[in-house]
Amino acid sequence: MVAFAAHTSAATSHCSPAGTAILLRSGRRDFPTRVSCSAAAHNKTVVIGVAADSGCGKSTFVRRLTSVLGGVAEPPRGGNPNPDSNTLVGDTATVLCLDDYHSLDRAARKARGLTALDPRANDFDLMYEQVRALKDGRAVDKPVYNHVTGLLDPPERVAPPRILLIQGLHPMCDERVRDLLDFSIYLDISDEVKFAWKIQRDIAERGHSLESIKASIEARKPDFDAYIDPQKQYADAVIEVLPTQLIPGDDDGKVPRVRLIMKEGVKHFAPVYLFDEGSTVSWIPCGRKLSCSYPGIKFAYGFGTYFGHEVSVLEMDGRFDKLDELIYVESHLSNLSTKYYGEVAQQMLTHADLPGSNNGTGLFQTIVGLKIRELCEQIVAERAAMTADAVKV
Ligand SMILES: Nc1ncnc2c1ncn2[C@@H]1O[C@H](COP(=O)(O)OP(=O)(O)OP(=O)(O)O)[C@@H](O)[C@H]1O
Ligand SMILES: O=C(CO)[C@H](O)[C@H](O)COP(=O)(O)O
C-alpha cells in the first residue's frame, strides 16, 4: 500500500522576501496600464491559475486543457501582432504567460544578480491590476516579455475571454492575484525528474551541455525554494511527479510515479476516485484487459492531509503500453466529469504525441482538464442564474 504522506501543516514560506517585494515598482511602470470596457459582463470571466517551475510541463498541460475546453488556442492575430507573443487566444479560453510581467529584462536581471523567479524581477501590482480588469470584463494592454531577445516588447491588447488561464512561475505568489483564481493547479516535479526532463530537452533541442544544465538548475534552486515551491500549499489540485517505486534506484524520470492530490471541499470540484469513494485502494490492472510490459503499472487511491488540508490522492506508477486500452482504467474511475464514456481515453489518444501521454502525467493532466471544464460550466451557470434572479428582483 502506498503511504499518503502528510505534509507540514504550517504555511511558513512566503513568495515575497520579507516585507519588500510586491510593492517594488520598476521602470516598467511607464507601460500603459490603461484598461477599456468591453461587451463582457461584470465578473463573467473564470480565472484558472497553473503554476510550475520552468520546463515542468505548463505548456503541455495548457495544450491538453485548451483542447478539452474546445477549439484551438493560437497566438494573437489581427492588428500588428508580435510574432514572439506568449499569449494564446481561443474561442473559449485565452492563455496568458506570466513571464510577461517580468519587470526586469534579461540584462537588468543579470546586472542586479536576480533570477526571473525573484519577485523583485516581476511586477505583481500590474499582474493583479490586469487580471482583475480581465475578470471584470475589461480589455488590457499587457506587456510582452520577449524570450528570444530577452527584452520587454511593447504591450499587446488582450480582450476579456470566457475563461482566462494564467500560467507561469507566480500565479499564486501574490495574495491579491491568488484571490482572483477560481481554481488553481501546481505541477510539482521532483528534483530528480526535473533534472532528467531538462537534460532530455536542453541537450537534444537547445544544444546545452550537461554541466551548464546542472549549473542553471543549481543557480535557480534557492529562489525556486523561496518563491515557486511554496505556492503548492494554495493549489486546489497538485500533480506530483516522482521517480518510480517499481524499479529500485531508478530516477531517470522515464517511468514516473504520479500523484494527483485533490483538495476536499472545493466548490464545483468533486475529487476523482478509484472503485469506491472514501476507501483505500491498491490496484494492479495488468492482466487480460491491460497490457503491461516491465515494470508494470500500479494504481493507488486514498486520503491524507496536505499542508493542513484534507485531500484525496490518486496515484499511478508505471507506463501504458497501449493507449487504446486505457478505457479499461477509465471505467474504474469515477467523478471524471466526462461528457461521454471513453472521453479520457479519446483525449489521451488525440494527444498521444505530447510528453507524458503514456503515463500518469498525461492521464492526470487530462482528468484535471475535464474537471476544470465542468467547474467553468458550473460557475458560468451559477453566475447566469444569479444575474437572472437579480433582474427579477
Ligand atoms: N510529462 C512529461 N513527461 C516527460 N517529459 C516532459 C513532460 N512534460 C514536460 N516534459 C519535458 O519538459 C519540456 C518542457 O515542457 P513544457 O514546455 O510543457 O514546460 P513549460 O513549463 O511550459 O516550460 P517553459 O517554462 O520552459 O516554457 C518538454 O519539452 C519535455 O522535454
Ligand atoms: O523561468 C522562465 C520561464 O518560465 C525563464 O527563465 C524566464 O522567463 C527568463 O527568461 P529568459 O530565459 O529569456 O531569460
UniProtKB/TrEMBL annotation:
The keyword Transmembrane does not apply. Pathway: Carbohydrate biosynthesis; Calvin cycle. One of its GO terms (biological process) is reductive pentose-phosphate cycle. Residues 47-247 form the Phosphoribulokinase/uridine kinase domain. InterPro entries: P-loop_NTPase, PRK, PRK/URK. It catalyses: D-ribulose 5-phosphate + ATP = D-ribulose 1,5-bisphosphate + ADP + H(+). One of its GO terms (cellular component) is chloroplast. It is an enzyme of class 2 (transferase). PROSITE patterns: PHOSPHORIBULOKINASE. The keyword Signal does not apply. Its main location: plastid. It is found in: Plastid, Chloroplast. Keywords: ATP-binding, Calvin cycle, Chloroplast, Disulfide bond, Kinase, Nucleotide-binding, Photosynthesis, Plastid, Transferase, Transit peptide. It comes from the Eukaryota. One of its GO terms (molecular function) is ATP binding. Its EC number is 2.7.1.19. Belongs to the phosphoribulokinase family. This is Phosphoribulokinase. It comes from Panicum virgatum (Blackwell switchgrass). The lineage of its organism: Eukaryota, Viridiplantae, Streptophyta, Embryophyta, Tracheophyta.
